[in-house]
Specification:
- Helices cover 43% and strands 24% of the residues.
- With 174 residues, the chain is α/β, with parallel strands linked by helices.
- It has helices at residues 19-30, 45-58, 71-78, 90-99, 104-114, 138-157, and strands at residues 8-13, 33-38, 62-66, 83-88, 121-127, 160-165, 168-173.
- It has six helices and seven strands.
- This is Bifunctional adenosylcobalamin biosynthesis protein.
- Keywords: ATP-binding, Cobalamin biosynthesis, GTP-binding, Kinase, Nucleotide-binding, Nucleotidyltransferase, Transferase.
- It catalyses: adenosylcob(III)inamide + ATP = adenosylcob(III)inamide phosphate + ADP + H(+); adenosylcob(III)inamide + GTP = adenosylcob(III)inamide phosphate + GDP + H(+); adenosylcob(III)inamide phosphate + GTP + H(+) = adenosylcob(III)inamide-GDP + diphosphate.
Length: 174
């Protein structure tokens, strides 16, 4: 395993499970320059309030980059030694790709292919959506399936994988 791969951690969990806080603490404890790549879009006032609250909670010690679509390209632009990059989150990115009609397989493969060349410490957050019932509509089923395949691709590249539930981390890999 290359040194670059040893720098990648994937954190999965449900909504409000504590995964973002856990990821932020990993980055803070690294002592490296903190970068945050936010993939969410404010589709409504409630989502804008969530985004604003997350920014306020992180404070000024983080450099925030908003990137709803071109994640691999933004990672490459931000990447560098002495940096820790937190991506939050893959499922919001996936939603954006689906809403734009992008080729999910191509985008996911590009992201996974980029990971081994990273110089920064990478911490990637995503929502685990495959633990519930089968969704009732095609789009939701497609989303669940795309997320599951994406998580498998990233987990295969990561040296560490955590699952967070009720604020408690379960180390699955590494």
């Amino acid at each position: 395993m290359s040194a670059a791969l040893a720098n990648t951690t994937l954190i999965l969990g449900g909504a409000r499970s504590g995964k973002s806080r856990f990821a932020e603490n990993l980055v803070i404890s690294s002592g490296l320059e903190r970068h945050y790549i936010a993939t969410g879009r404010a589709w409504d006032d409630e989502m804008q309030a969530r985004i604003d609250q997350h920014k306020d909670d992180r404070g000024p010690s983080w450099i925030t980059h908003e990137e709803p679509l071109a994640l691999a390209e933004r990672l490459a632009a931000v990447d560098g030694e002495g940096r820790a990059i937190l991506v939050d989150c893959l499922t919001l990115w996936l939603t954006n790709l689906m809403m734009e009609g992008r080729d999910i397989a191509v985008q996911a493969a590009a992201l996974a292919a980029w990971l081994p060349q990273a110089k920064a410490r990478l911490v990637i957050v995503s929502n685990e959506v495959g633990l519930g019932i089968v969704p009732e509509n095609r789009m939701a089923r497609d989303f669940r399936d795309h997320a599951g395949r994406l998580h498998q691709m990233i987990a295969a590249k990561a040296v560490e994988v955590y699952f967070i539930a009720a604020g408690l981390p379960l180390k699955m890999k590494g």
